[in-house]
Amino acid sequence: MSKTNQRIVPHLWYDKEAKEAAEFYTSIFPDSKITNISTIHDTPSGDSDIVTFDLWGQKLMAISAGPYFKINPSISFIVNFDPSRDKNASEKINEVWNKLSEGGTALMPFDTYPFSEKYGWIQDKYGLSWQLMLTNPEGEERPAIVPSLLFVGDQCGNAEEAFTFYLSVFKNAKMGHIARYPKGMEPDKEGTIMFSDFMLENQWFVAMDSAHEHKFSINEAISFMVYCDTQEEIDYYWEKLSAVPEAEQCGWLKDQYGVSWQIVPSEMDEMMSKSTPEQLARVTKAFLTMKKFDLGELRKAYNG
């Protein structure tokens, strides 16, 4: 997938394991590969590896940037094993579950559920959570890998407000399915979101409310990078999404639901992966001083 095709890229924060985790994931999922590794120097965390990789049609990025944020199950990845796409879907889901289980913890056992004949929720040895699902091929097709947001704690009950907000911010967006909790599912409140999915800029997302006691909430460890072609676009997303002034740094912001976004110029990938060490050092130095990215200044730094 070219960067123009996928404008929103999930970004994973690790202490030191970005490269190791990416190698692990690309070895497990079909049609997957690491596409770039670059190291930036002199960041607040010292040297940081930045890894770009494709997992079964989903572009992801991972960074090793110190122990500041820890990945938890509030943002997970749903993996659709669709028999209409792959006749071995049923064997493949077993195989992937077994590999992700090595050193991992099952959050919902791999079993038969009312919504799927095979489903399980696993937190792998790097802390990342996956919901593996044998999908009903009758339904409308969805990508193999879809990031999922779980609204818990004081954000519980906000899933609908959040996806309505995201659908208003992103120009190319549409709603998918909505399933609400019925009566009698306490502690979940009737009418809150049991499952919903929606598409922003060709990237599908899932959002769910959960009123159960969870020892985690959405944090910066998983963020979403929004690639912008112009300074106007950067300004637009920054203004619409940023709700926590003290969270603004190096292109990062946090919205009112606790979700972190990185608003980055589309050229940034090229600047990071196709630059000389001197260019990379100049660009890194420039962006470390910025909150919202200034495309003109970054280009100036890149071109020396």
Task: Determine the mean pLDDT.
Answer: 94
Q: Quickly count the helices.
A: 7
Q: Hey, roughly how much beta strand do the residues contain? A: 35-45%
Low-confidence stretches: none
Overall strand count: 15
Q: How would you characterize the largest beta sheet?
A: 8 strands, mixed
Elements, N to C (H/E) = EHEEEEHEEEEHEEEEHEEHHH
Main structural class:
alpha+beta
Rg computed from alpha carbons, rounded to a whole number of angstroms: 19 Å
Share of helical residues:
10-25%
Distance between the termini: 30 Å
Which of globular, elongated, flat, extended, rod-shaped describes the shape? globular
Strand arrangement within the widest β-sheet reads 6-7-8-5-9-12-11-10
Condensed summary:
By secondary structure, this protein is α+β, with helices and mostly antiparallel strands. The chain contains 7 helices and 15 strands.
Textual characterization of the structure:
- The protein is α+β, with helices and mostly antiparallel strands and 304 residues long.
- The chain has helices at 18-28, 89-101, 159-169, 231-241, 268-273, 277-288, 295-303, and strands spanning 8-14, 33-43, 46-55, 58-64, 75-81, 105-113, 116-123, 129-134, 145-151, 173-180, 193-200, 203-209, 222-228, 252-254, 260-265.
- The strands form two sheets. It has an eight-stranded mixed sheet with strand order 6-7-8-5-9-12-11-10, with helices on one face. The protein has a seven-stranded mixed sheet with strand order 2-3-4-1-13-15-14, with helices on both faces.
- Strand 6 (105-113) and strand 7 (116-123) form a beta hairpin.
- The mean pLDDT is 94.
